[in-house]
Amino acid sequence: xxxxxxxxxxxxxxxxxxxxxxxxxxxxxxxxxxxxxxxxxxxxxxxxxxxxxxxxxxxxxxxxxxxxxxxxxxxxxxxxxxxxxxxxxxxxxxxxxxxxxxxxxxxxxxxxxxxxxxxxxxxxxxxxxxxxxxxxxxxxxxxxxxxxxxxxxxxxxxxxxxxxxxxxxxxxxxxxxxxxxxxxxxxxxxxxxxxxxxxxxxxxxxxxxxxxxxxxx
Length: 217
Ligand SMILES: N[C@@H](CCC(=O)N[C@@H](CS)C(=O)NCC(=O)O)C(=O)O
Hints:
Elements (H helix, E strand, L loop, with lengths): L1 E4 L6 H10 L4 E4 L10 H6 L7 E4 L2 E3 L2 H11 L13 H27 L8 H22 L12 H12 L12 H9 L2 H9 L17
The structure holds glutathione (GSH).
């Protein structure tokens, strides 16, 4: 399979999944300036000109949760929970909760990183979205209670979908804002497949700072 990826973006989920599953892939690194995402070739793979985009046997897919669900069903059963599995509902919930977290990360990235002119940036949005991001993570942690991963039976693609947001949250949230977040990030970082995916991620193109503080208010 082929994967089109922008370093530090949501396509990292698919890259991480491929390493967890031990599946072979061919990686194409794209920029985040818009131009390489808007070519006719890329728009044929991703309707909105985004990443991730993959081709599987020549057929395109471009939603990371759908890609992971399909790959788990067809090539990596240990990372999925099939229909009829007692954890199926919680698995699907976690797999898609990643985008509930992701929308806040995307808004924070817009206002701290993408919008360059100060008058375009909203301190209100920065504060509101940081609080909403913290809420999504606090909620997930409360649900996990004493567990390391989202499902009682252990690590799954749902942990990759959510884990990408957990990892990226370090750009916008201080550890004390979400008790348990640092330990969760450490558990993610301790996975060999995560480290192997990081090694393939490519040079930073979105986040140049380790942390983006929001204005007081
Ligand atoms: N729901 C999609 C979202 C994909 C998405 O929006 N990716 C961003 C990078 S994080 C992108 O390609 N943005 C480029 C653009 O908006 O032009 C997924 O999770 O795969």
